[in-house]
Amino acid sequence: MRRKIALATAVAIAGLPLMGLAHAETWRFALEEADGGVQDAYAEAFKERIEEQSNGDITVEIYPYGSLGTSSQLTELVQQDAVQLAFASPGHLASVIPETGVFTLHFLFSDDNAINEEVLSGSEAVGMLEEAYNEQNLELLGVIPEGWMAWTADRPIRMPVDMQGFRIRTMTSPILVESYRAYGANPVPMPYSEVYSGLQLDRIDGQANPLFAIAEMGFHEVQDYLIQAKPAQFMTTLVVANDFYEGLPDARRRMIDEVTGDLRRYIFATQAQFNDARLEAIEESSDIQVSTLDEEQRAAFRELSMPVRDTYVERAGERGKRILETLERDIAAAEQEGGRGGN
Ligand code: 6CS
Questions:
Q1: What is the per-residue pLDDT for 342?
Q2: Does the beta carbon of 219 lie inside 6 Å of ligand 1?
Q3: Residue 135, domain extent
Q4: Is residue 146 part of a domain?
Q5: The ligand 1 atom nearest the CA atom of 191
Q6: What is the CATH number of the domain that holds 153?
Q7: Which of 73, 92, 209, when mutated, tests ligand 1's pocket best, judged by the most ligand atoms within 8 Å of its CB?
Q8: pLDDT at residue 338 above 90?
């Protein structure tokens, strides 16, 4: 079931008891994306499994982007238990939890997404990150990649020199802003909902997002070039309030852990299908010029991105440094062993 409720109403109804239904509960699940995107696919699969496994005692209501607020506001709603689950993308959340900004660093993860899947499911770095989330009354339920970042632009971009003075919209975390400043661009942080009009009204020259999101938001309609640069996977995190999670009976907590564990493989495969299909749709429905950076071009961006890791450590402190070093070590080890191959 999908509902659209105003922010104030969401906060108000959170306090209402579900009278007469001893075991029945409704969990509200807020998305940072519209219907039909990767987060929606995840939420639908989560809803189906939770409702089935709880024999209908739990109803999951999905709130797509636009119904409750910006990404940062969704996180606040979770912290207040007005919404029980939400996606909280590090590109925004790192403003509050700098350690999670590690997922926005460019050229950190492997070019082989199967290796990233392996690392994310086993790295101690994720455990360290959980502590940082807990300190903000959040429980980290999963780190979910949504596809390779591509740039859309009003000009061709092949090398860093093409980014000089380029007004690129970024998500709102200062760490992510630094990634584009390092290329010589003029980053303009803004919420997702303002990007289309920002492009249309010429407040920005381009933006970065995975292919499915570019199609979903129609950015290709107001841009001339689409550059498959792959500086990073777009990663999101799934959160619940710590108070809510710890207050659940053990069986329900286990149910959440099992379902989110099961969905890890599903969403890796699903995001890849979504991104492939939406690129075809973009090419069929517009005359945007699609290009792919070659290895030499990517190497030029990679080199400029390296000092941003120091900026991350300055902001994320000692724990952030350990998270980064652990990921670097685990990614290198997994690459050495060789991944299964996949996008
Ligand atoms: O660019 C953004 O702000 C958004 N992009 C995606 C693909 N998901 C959510 C995020 O807020």
A1: 58
A2: no
A3: 7-338
A4: yes
A5: 3
A6: 3.40.190.170
A7: 209
A8: no
User: How many angstroms does the Cα of residue 89 sit away from the middle of ligand 1?
Assistant: 7
What is the domain count for the chain? 1
In a domain, 2, yes or no: no
Cβ of 330 less than 6 Å from ligand 1: no
Q: Write the secondary structure of 24-75 as one string of H (helix), E (strand) and C (coil).
A: CEEEEEECCCCCCCHHHHHHHHHHHHHHHHCCCCEEEEEECCCCCCCHHHHH
Nearest CA to ligand 1 atom 9: 32
For residues 114-130, average pLDDT: 95
- Residue 341 confidence (pLDDT): 54
The answer to whether position 124 is within a domain reads: yes
Per-residue tokens: 182: 């390092």
Which tens digits make up the pLDDT trace of 250-291? Answer: 999 999 999 999 999 999 999 999 999 999 999 999 999 999
Ligand 1 and 89: CB distance under 6 A: yes
| Letter string b/e over residues 66-91, b meaning 16 or more CB atoms within 10 A of that residue's CB | ebbbbbbbbbbbbbebbbbbbbbbbb
Q: Which helix (H) or strand (E) holds 201?
A: none
Return the pLDDT at 67. 85
